[in-house]
Amino acid sequence: MIVILKSGATDEQIEHVIERIEQLGHSAHLSRGTHRTIIGVIGDEESLRSEPLKALPGVADVIPVLPPYKLVSREAHPDATIVHVGSVPVGGGYLAMIAGPCAVESEERMVRIARAVRRAGANILRGGAFKPRTSPYSFQGLGTKGLEFLRTAGDEAGMPVVTEATDPRLVETICRYADMLQVGARNMQNFVLLREVGQTDKPVLLKRGMSATVSEWLMSAEYIASQGNSQVILCERGIRGFDSATRNVFDVAAIPLARQLTHLPVIADPSHATGRPDLIPSCALAAMAAGADGVHVEVHDEPEQARSDGAQALLPDQYEELFQQMSRLAELYQRRIAGPGDSSGPV
Ligand code: PEP
Ligand code: MN
Q: 307: Cβ below 6 Å to ligand 1?
């Protein structure tokens, strides 16, 4: 940590800052420049983070040297973490190809879509049973019935399943059905929910909040990891912009940036990022080229009948075509798409 003193800081004030740092069990290294004096604080930065050093007279600023997320930072853990979703490895060269409808609507449809996306190559099935909707009058999901249908579809198609947890009180129930828990954009800073999923033994798909900085997103991952669960996959899903031509602004740079900052896998969701089926394939490929550890796409067999997000759904055939293109890129980048039950051999 570096303490920058005001230009007019007096010797007494500087002495007082040094005393305070030493009282807190750290040592101080004073450096007097021509224009500014700074104090380098030596010791465990974490324990000083919550100390109001900036409130001391004569202090202009306090700058931490280390990122505030310790457990998930790449600095603390240089090797990529491989998260296991059921038997599917994700990260460290293995790609998560997540596909399925926005919401689980019926058992028959769920099984049909599951088979279609598995045939196309997807290795993880998605489907929302508890939907976080902007309007209380919109379809809220089938609830526990939806979890049952999703589980059945996953088993029929031989795929692990991911579904969203919108409420900490639902986590235990969802864990009985799902292989991975999703924390959606709207709940990225629901700290009670983050703690709750952090206490499970299920991997967590953590969407980036629609107005969250990359640092806030990583702090949310840190919340989960701080409870003992480091099986977290981050998902860039677009952030709020001013142009309604696309649903959100796909922040492609956040993918390589987050991958530099954390050892956790980082995937992309071009469906919610763009909200437009005509833009999803190019953004999915851009995400892969940017180093994403996977791509999450909404697929529906009858988008015009869909009870949520039908307008952004790809048809199974369109997904299959996109999957072929993504596989070619994966090969170029020496990434593997492990099928369920197939995690043999390093990449
Ligand atoms: C979803 O995955 O259907 C969803 C609601 O996503 P997000 O939280 O990214 O909006
Ligand atoms: Mn959706």
A: no
